[in-house]
TrEMBL record:
GO MF term list: enoyl-[acyl-carrier-protein] reductase (NADPH) activity
Organism of this sequence: Oryza meyeriana var. granulata
Cellular component GO terms, alphabetical: mitochondrion
Cited Gene3D superfamilies: Medium-chain alcohol dehydrogenases, catalytic domain, NAD(P)-binding Rossmann-like Domain
Entry EC no(s): 1.3.1.104
Residue ranges of every copy of the Enoyl reductase (ER) domain listed in the record: 45-245
Protein name (record): enoyl-[acyl-carrier-protein] reductase
Keyword Oxidoreductase found: yes
Keyword terms of this UniProt record: Fatty acid biosynthesis, Fatty acid metabolism, Lipid biosynthesis, Lipid metabolism, NADP, Oxidoreductase
Signal peptide coordinates: none
Length: 249
């Protein structure tokens, strides 16, 4: 699955932002996490106004906890929406850590944890706590191990957008191979995941994108991902749109 958000906090950028040092050794048992830095907010509002970077006190590592050093975390639109407070489910405030997904490396473990080892790569599962911080301590059950040979930007973004695309394809109508679906916003990361998953499942896609400079290259890129048809909005600004779509399926 190719799903690379344009705004990914890649390891180098994330370390610069959060102040983590590049090389750390992993230790099996520690009583507390190293001091961490995090991107926090105390009340909802425009992210550029309410987010702040701050030092976070070391967290206690309980018997069943795992301390993870974050490697990369994306900035998804839904992260910004969460900071803005547009979703009905909100984190308790004041002081929440921003971010929703990402990948990290196990730094230390509580003595009762045998499901993970120092050095393992893990992602939050389900994504339910702030990931824009350098070290996170959560119970072992909050982490899911992933292969460490996957590029970090793939591992960091495997949860939110690909799974949203999968659920859109599965949860609302019963699609079977040979069916055709139409989507707008096809350049979005979710849209690109829809294209790839549809292709894998034998579904055809008709994709609508905005009229923008370079739209021919965008069309080619989406077709390389598996899109069957790609139109700009102006190409579909015609009276017989329904008949056109019917001739395509
Ligand atoms: N579980 C969930 O509910 C869930 C999970 C993930 C995402 N989402 C939502 O799904 C949406 C897509 O997320 P994403 O991360 O894939 O977004 P993204 O990669 O940032 O893509 C944004 C898309 O919106 C289009 N767009 C932006 N402004 C527009 C405008 N004024 N008119 C028409 N199109 C416009 C962009 O088109 P251009 O390429 O032309 O700029 C692009 O296709 C967001 O609303 C996000 O919050 C929901």
């Amino acid at each position: 699955m190719v799903a690379t958000p344009a705004r990914l906090l890649l390891p180098t950028a994330a370390r610069r932002l959060l102040g983590a040092s590049a090389a750390r050794t992993t230790a099996r048992h520690l009583s507390t996490s190293p001091p961490a830095r995090a991107v926090l907010y105390d009340h909802h509002g425009p992210p550029d106004q309410v987010l702040r970077v701050a030092d976070v006190a070391p967290a206690e590592i309980g018997d069943r906890d795992v301390c993870v050093r974050m490697l990369a975390a994306p900035i998804n639109p839904s992260d910004l929406n969460r900071v803005e407070g547009v979703y009905p489910v909100r984190p308790p405030l004041p002081t929440a850590v921003a971010g929703y997904e990402g990948v990290g490396q196990v730094h230390a473990l509580g003595p009762a944890v045998d499901s993970l080892s120092p050095g393992d790569w893990v992602i939050p599962s389900p994504p339910s706590f702030g990931t824009w911080q350098t070290y996170i301590v959560k119970p072992a059950t909050a982490w899911h191990r992933v292969r460490a040979d996957v590029p970090p930007h793939y591992a960091a973004t495997v949860t939110v957008n690909p799974l949203t695309a999968l659920r859109m394809l599965r949860d609302f109508v019963n699609l079977t191979p040979g069916d055709t679906l139409v989507q707008n916003g096809a350049t979005s990361i979710v849209g690109q995941c829809v294209i790839q998953l549809a292709k894998l499942h034998g579904l055809h896609t008709i994709n609508i994108i905005r009229d923008r400079p370079g739209s021919e290259e965008v069309k080619n890129k989406l077709k390389q991902l598996g899109a069957d048809q790609v139109f700009t909005e102006s190409q579909l600004d015609i009276k017989n749109i329904k008949s056109l779509l019917l001739t395509l399926v």
